[in-house]
Amino acid sequence: MGNKRKPARIADNKTPTPTPPVDLPEVAKAEWKRITKTLNDKGILKPELFFSIRQYCTAYARLVKCELYFKTNSLIKYTHGGEHPDAHWKIEQSARKEVQTWLKSFGLTVESNNKLKSSEEVVELDDDLKELME
Q1: What is the Cα–Cα distance from 37 to 45, expressed in whole angstroms?
Q2: Rounded distance, CA 97 to CA 116, Å?
Q3: Residue 90 and residue 77: Cα distance in Å, rounded?
Q4: CA 111 – CA 7 distance, rounded (Å)
Q5: How is the chain split into domains, by residue range?
Q6: Are 19 and 3 in contact (CB under 8 A)?
Q7: Per residue in 80-115, is it b (16+ CB within 10 Å) or e — as a string?
Q8: Quick one: which H or E segment has residue 113?
């Protein structure tokens, strides 16, 4: 009589969209749903990516938390030793870099999309050349 999960819909041989891990923060769960849908729509969502997606969502949640922190707090801490950057700044920079790295690995950055478009153009040129040779 426990809580049963409904099976995800499968369309066009795509992986069922997984539910987010229960221990993720809410903002990470929302990002999980968004990113898994995006990857599924691109046809590249696979179960072996779930751990990477979890890591990405965790870094994303840290980034959001730091950005919210800086809305009400200064980047600079003033102490007897002088001015120092807030510790959240280093955490935010690290999370931002990790998020960018994961997005690039998923092929979801402008740079990776441009590379994909370039490779598609090469394939189109190859097809055109084959037609000319026939």
Answers
A1: 8
A2: 22
A3: 13
A4: 35
A5: 26-108
A6: no
A7: eeeeeebebbeebeebbebbeebbeebebeeeeeee
A8: helix 110-133
CB neighbours (10 Å) of residue 78?
Answer: 9
Note whether 109 and 96 are within 8 A (CB): no
Both tokens of 2, joined, read 């426990």
Whole-structure pTM value: 0.71
Phi, psi of 6 (to 5 degrees): -80, 140
- Which pLDDT score, from 0 to 100, does residue 101 have? 94
Check residue 116 and give its pLDDT: 52
Tokens for 51? Answer: 């751990």
Q: Report whether 76 contacts 83 (CB < 8 A).
A: yes
Scan for tokens 């280093």, then name that residue. Answer: 90
Q: For every one of its 134 residues, what pLDDT tens digit does the chain have, with 9 covering 90 and above? A: 455 554 444 445 566 789 999 999 999 999 999 999 999 988 889 999 999 999 999 999 999 999 999 899 888 888 888 888 888 889 999 999 999 999 999 988 887 766 555 444 445 545 554 554 45
Tokens in use for 87? Answer: 């510790």
